Batch of 4 targets.
Target 1
Amino acid sequence: MNLHFRLETTDDHYAVEEMTREAFWELWEPDKAICDEHLLVHRLRNSDNLIPELNIVAQLDDKLVGHIIYTKATIIGDCDNEREVLTFGPLTVSPQVQGMGVGQALMRYSFAEAKRLGYLAVLIFGHPNYYPRIGFRPAAEFGITTEEGSSFDAFMAYPLYEGALDGINGRYIIDDAYMGLTQDDALEFDKKFPPRAPYQTRPISILLDRLDSAARKAMEKTGIESLEMMTEKSAKEVLALPGMDKQGIDAIYRVLKEYGVKW
């Protein structure tokens, strides 16, 4: 595979946003009308926390197929001491080449660049069954929580070298751009792209109807509303639910695979 990485240029902006829109169009939140990741990319480019050296596109035979964008984040310790780390996202891979390793290649290339630039670690909120394959570990293992003090498997950390996060713990603070997205803003921004029918999430009842009584009750307590929202939880977290067992996990895998949801 003739994959090439380079910095994003202004000439790439529309193409990257359109590719991001296409890659994230299939929503997981039932209360959203459309995705907002393409708007997020647009806003992050103007953030004071943007790291231009880590705003990278991937090309396959001169065709744009991927993009990753990094911003600075902060870990604030108990004594209000601050340490700078990184976050990335959206990580975009064109739907035409998903499953070919483009996303992993983008991460590994950008991790090497981030390490060369002197950064400590990367922390993300991401798919808890996918990112551990790259080497991400639950942030809780390092004593790092969300800003609100929460821990869950979808919140992960990747030290850029051995011991990079030793002695660093506290609350994780990310750029405000990640938190200030609204559907009104996304719908207005989306007018610059060709019209597209909104994606309809699949209700979680499709899955619940295929589980035995105990596993069903376990899933109902999670508050998950759609099949797509299952990507918020790792298989380990779901298996730990009271009433869930391996047979239930196997049934969940079968249903999600049947409906094309990657878990």
Target 2
Amino acid sequence: MHELIERYIAETVRFLRPQEREDVRIELASNILDMLGENPNDAMVERTLLELGAPSTLAAKYRGRERCLIGPNTFDFYLMVLKLVTVIVLTVTLVLTIITFFFEPVELSILNMVAKTIAALFSAASGVFLWVTITFTLLDYFQINMQKETWNLEALYNLDAASTKEITKREIYTDLIGLTLFMLFLVFVYTNSNLIAIHQRDFEPIPLFMAQPLRPFLIGWMGITLLNFAVSMVKMLKGRWTTAVFTLNTLTELIGIFYFIFIATRWRLYNPEFLTFFNTTMERHQSIVKAIAVALLILTLIGIGHEASITFRGESRKRFHENGEQE
């Protein structure tokens, strides 16, 4: 099948529900091939795909039902804006809520922190849904069109070469949930060093880390976590792997892993009593930490390599096509 057809079909089914995509992919491929006939040339393929219209427009026809909460013509744009604004507002709310924990007049328990965080996030999400929906309802009522999609030959060739470049919603939501839990974990460790400790009945807890020296490093780690939140929002906005998204994501992953290694190898942060409890010398502990750090670095590089293969597979095909046109 012609590469442009594959790109067009992949982009079209991206706007559909996962359970609909395979059937539409097969039907659309069959229809396009029937329209082209035997031995079509590049010009025929280009003309046929341009006549079919933009992938988002064609996908709306394949859905078989109009999405009328806001209006069928703006519903997809509404969802994109709603998701983006929700992520931004929830991130800001999470940060502000966490900051307030440091200024509480009384020490909060972990359960109180979790409850306050969930309540703040729920309130923020409800507000976002209400105001974004009202805004789009008014825009739709007054027939204000904010979608300026241009469908021409340039847009056709700018379609991604493979559907595997898509960043799935499940992947993004998993990242955001994981980052939120990790941020809460960092706050809990900051406020209570006994969270990571040996607990024995009738004895004081033996923490793994020395609380005061560790706290400045935890603040730095919180900053890196917020940077990862920002990258996740960019990934949600773009929806697919591009060179810029890959570069940004790789930088944050490398910053995170090297910062972890940096903290893990600050030997003065470890509580000697913790090591004594396990009858472990500092030398042996250092060897274990270094082995873990190397393993995590290797796994991170493998993940980056996988993301690079997804990102640049389509880019290399696009450059090949452009070079062929110039020749």
Target 3
Amino acid sequence: MTALDRTAAVRQGESIDVNAVVTYLKDKISDIEGPVSLRQFPRGFSNLTYLITIGDRELVLRRPPFGKKAKTAHDMHREYRILSALKPVFPHVPLPLTYCDDPAIMDAPFYVMERLQGVILRKQLPESSAFNADWADRLCRRWVAVLGELHGLDYRECGLGDLGRPEGYMTRQVHGWSHRYRNARTEDVPDFESVMTWLDKNMPNRPARPALIHNDYKFDNVILDPGDPTRIIGVLDWEMATVGDPLMDLGASLGYWVEAGDSDELKLVRTLPTLSPGMWTRRQIVAHYAETTGAAVEDFAWYYCFGLFRLAVIAQQIYYRFYHGQTTDKRFSVLGIAVGILEKAAAQVMATGKY
């Protein structure tokens, strides 16, 4: 089976004192002995993730980016707390092992969890007959089921009742992401004002049942069982999780979901294999989610439009860094084009009500 999540050498400027970390870990975790190695998971643009191997034990360490203070977006204790609360009731998370905020060990707080090794899907499917249309159909069904399972948890009973403020969540999200876009806008991208105005004026006025939401649930944040790649064994990257509107969670997920019938332009910004044979359409996903959770989805076009806008803001914040010379990573140079494509897609949803 290919597509196992691979590590690479630690990037320049992102090294950690592995000896200090391992000394700390030996006081916290039993039965870890043997040669030590350090590697890094190279993907992702936010928190940094490392693989520490001690003998035959593989541990994953998460820490904030260098040069940034651990604000809410990089709150390691919050992420560790979420995993600790979820593990007994939601089996699709890695086992958290320890949290540390001792500056003598590392310059930033970090936590360590077990490694879940499996298949992570990227833009192109692995070259294997196992990844056929029947597999895609069954995976989509399971992908929706796991999201519905998360949304169905009693977050108060899990001990996460204070994780977010569900009252006014939708308004705060629209205004917050609009503020972020205006702050990050460069002169070569659309102003998105018509989209932001539409989202503000057309918010669904029925209150949604609050739920624990992941806020970045997509194929490259789930781990599939190598023996049965329709089975999700892990959901990663909980840094944006909160208590809020579950349909906004689904809308954010479908902002990434490019399907076979979409425009050639939108296909250019695809990062996941969602248009492969057998993959469901967005409408199929929403219909199945509604059928299995009982959610009312008549106004889902609004949620999808918000998902496209939110994705554009994320891309623009990264592009802003490239535009102003704060990074030289050439991958970021095309993100301004992606922002323009997402603006057109959002305008189309506004005009047609289709998703």
Target 4
Amino acid sequence: MNKPKVVTFLPAPLDFQLSHIFSNRLDLSIVDLVHVPRDSSEDEVCQAVVGATVILLPPIRHINRKMLEASRGVKLIQVISVGYDFIDLEAATELKIPVANNPGYAKSSVAEHTLMFMLMLLKKGLRLHEMGNTKQWTLSEKQGFWDQVWELRGKTLGILGLGSIGKEVARLAGVFGPEIIYFKRTRLSEEEEEALGVEYCSFDDLLARSDILSIHVPLTDETRGMIGREEIAKMKRGAILLNLARGEVIDDVALAEAVLEGRLSGVGTDVLTENRRGNVVETPSPLLDLENVMITPHMAGPTKEARARSQTQATDNILRVLGGEKPLHLVNDV
């Protein structure tokens, strides 16, 4: 009897995957584990996934219709991340291929990262650190910042997208005493709103009222380009914008212009919109090297603790399928 075939695209050798990713819970005696290198061609991917039972996929490999057709009959494509915009979901659904994401594992890490952005930008943390490090600052230089640093208490924090991460942001930030408003496609119940201490409002009201706008939406056709010049123009002058979602949700050019013009007092982003060829950036983001812009290299999620939760949750789902059970966290209707 043939063993179930588990295909992984994880950027690590098999021995590392077995000891760290699968935590020694995936027994090689009962599966055929196949590792596909990151730089594999489309044809090599198609060949590798033929006859697969499960495919384990990180957000570094785009899976198109041709690859999905080659994997026809697979029982699960398990994404190791929350986002799944790198898979042709329409094609997967047509081919009746179940796709599951990995929700919730990074809510604490991303929410903490969001709060770090908020406080660093409100307090001008990077600029004051540079000043303090010179050991040559003067009282007049310090006084120049007295009207440029603020408290979170009393501000209006707007959250765009109130899924597991957005809710965690509301819980953590609520301790500091801001007014918290939110917009999402499906409104929470009154009980949930009361428990979180949040107020629902329209998208336009969210833009107009927020001193800090924190974005936590998935990348879909509906959210792509959701924040552009028109939306930024509706925001308060001097507001802070945080993007912990996907770079394509925001027009980076319009965002950079708003910073340079002083319309926005700060931007914190963990994601950028850049044109790449492989690992080479061909068109850098216009947000790079701007004052009052804090950029991290897509590192909000992968803390040590979050990666452990991700691996455990993904492995649990794979073992469910190998055991004949229905997978959890499906993102398509098959």
